[in-house]
Design the sequence.
């Protein structure tokens, strides 16, 4: 059971990093630091968009309009950290 908890925690960490990398890549494209027409940048950006957009879209639907400010990645990361801490500190000791 301990291995399963570690696996789930690792998957949550990887998903958090995917959100962070997506946001940074979007900033780099917006400020013309990287070229979005580059096949590698397009492939990575497309993968990260498809992997993270379902979660971020659901959060965006619940948020009021904040103009051009998108805080859905911040809220998603906070929710994932909460879920990870709940798993590690509350659920795991109860199972052992």
Sequence:
């Amino acid at each position: 059971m301990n291995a399963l908890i570690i696996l789930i925690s690792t998957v949550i960490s990887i998903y958090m990093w995917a959100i962070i990398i997506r946001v940074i890549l979007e900033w780099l494209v917006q400020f013309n630091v990287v070229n979005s027409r580059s096949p590698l940048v397009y492939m990575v950006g497309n993968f990260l968009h498809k992997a993270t957009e379902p979660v971020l879209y659901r959060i965006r639907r619940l948020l009021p309009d904040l103009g051009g400010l998108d805080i859905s990645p911040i809220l998603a990361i906070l929710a994932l950290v909460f879920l990870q801490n709940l798993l590690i500190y509350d659920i795991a000791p109860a199972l052992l």
The chain has a mean pLDDT of 94.
